[in-house]
């Protein structure tokens, strides 16, 4: 398969997930399959070489090309990831501990509900009603 054939199915969009200033460089990196850092370095060089044209083209792309998020399902999820990136190590550690505690609470609640169900089943199996139901089924 040629490179043209693989590129014809894709369309250019700004990358909202890896955006610094609008996601234009990240969009180009995704579309052409180039390293994002290389793309950003080339854009910075273009800013120094042809400042007015580069600024106009960059702003036009930001305004005209839609942004897409490929990684996160919802905007809230994307905002959560951004907040997580901005956290300090201590805050991340505390958030991880809180998440672990919440997960432990959920597991504990599930175990308690399973214990209650098991107790009801044991009560039914050891009752005379179970024996009567079994005898009726065997008829």
Helix content: over 70%
**pLDDT averaged residue by residue:** 82
How far the N terminus sits from the C terminus, by CA atoms, comes to 69 Å
Unreliable spans: none
Largest sheet, if any? 2 strands, parallel
CA radius of gyration: 29 Å
- Structural class comes to mainly alpha
The total strand number stands at: 2
Shape: elongated
Strands of the largest sheet, in order across it?
1-2
Task: Give the count of helical stretches.
Answer: 7
How many structurally independent domains? Answer: 2
SSE pattern, N- to C-terminal: HEHHHEHHH
Give the percentage of residues in beta strands: under 5%
Could you describe the 3D structure shown?
The chain is mostly helical and 139 residues long. It has two domains: 1-86, no CATH class; 88-139. The protein is 73% helix and 3% strand. It is built from seven helices and two strands. The protein has helices at residues 3-7, 24-32, 36-49, 51-64, 75-86, 89-125, 128-138, and strands at residues 14-15, 67-68. The protein has a two-stranded parallel sheet. α2 (24-32) crosses α3 (36-49) and α3 (36-49) packs across α4. The radius of gyration is 29 Å and the shape is elongated. The mean pLDDT is 82.
């Amino acid at each position: 398969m040629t490179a043209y054939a693989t590129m014809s199915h894709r369309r250019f969009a700004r990358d909202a997930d890896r955006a610094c200033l609008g996601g234009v460089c990240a969009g180009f990196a995704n579309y052409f399959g180039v390293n994002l850092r290389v793309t950003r370095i080339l854009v910075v060089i273009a800013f120094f070489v042809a400042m007015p044209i580069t600024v106009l083209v960059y702003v036009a792309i930001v305004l005209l090309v839609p942004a897409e998020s490929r990684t996160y399902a919802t905007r809230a999820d994307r905002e959560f990831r951004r907040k997580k990136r901005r956290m300090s190590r201590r805050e991340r550690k505390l958030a991880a501990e809180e998440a672990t505690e919440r997960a432990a609470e959920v597991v504990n609640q599930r175990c308690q509900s399973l214990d209650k169900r098991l107790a009801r089943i044991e009560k039914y199996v050891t009752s005379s009603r179970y024996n009567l139901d079994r005898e009726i089924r065997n008829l």
